[in-house]
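Handoff note, outgoing to incoming analyst
You'll be picking up this chain. Sequence as last confirmed:
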Amino acid sequence: MADASTSSTEKEECVKSQYLKNLTQILYSEEDIAAACKRLGAQISLDYKDKDLVVVGLLRGAFMFQADLVRYITVPHEIDFMMLGSYSGTQSHNVKISCDMRIDPYKKHILIVEDLIDTGATLAWLQQHLKTKQSISVRLCTLLDKQTNKRVKDIKVDYVGFECPDYWIVGYGMDYNQHYRSLPCIGVLDPKIYQNEKISIDIKKTEDESKDDK
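Most recent structure output, in case you need it:
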């Protein structure tokens, strides 16, 4: 049994080591994140005393943040999840709910938990959507508030872990092609990782077009 356990641990560390090699820098360590969760949990607990609170995590990116955050929320609360998809039309930003809340938000205080805010368009839509369900309040908690000129909606973020630079960020629930989510820290993905993939896709597309021409 000891050998099997050691083998499993070694495999896990090997995967993390491979992921870490693809980061240009670590922005927030495991300890930094834990301190932010503790700080946010304490503030949320004060603000929601004697209120009917539902903490709604947005899948998949926020699953680690939500799990750690609620450990520091000391007032009674329910936990739920949503999964959203978005696409841009010719004149508007459209959102599709692929996994909805199981708990009825009617007459409850909703706290949306997100891993990272970038453009803000999807979260702005979600806040308005939940207000139409006659929630008493809809607030937003994010671990990372990206400082970017891509922000298209001026939304109020009530609880922020960190204001982060405009990089491609992975780790602690955040991914690139569904990888890197399990990293306990948050780092900047080496541009070569996604640039090389784009080059390979472009090459394949060119080859396919060439075959079609023949």
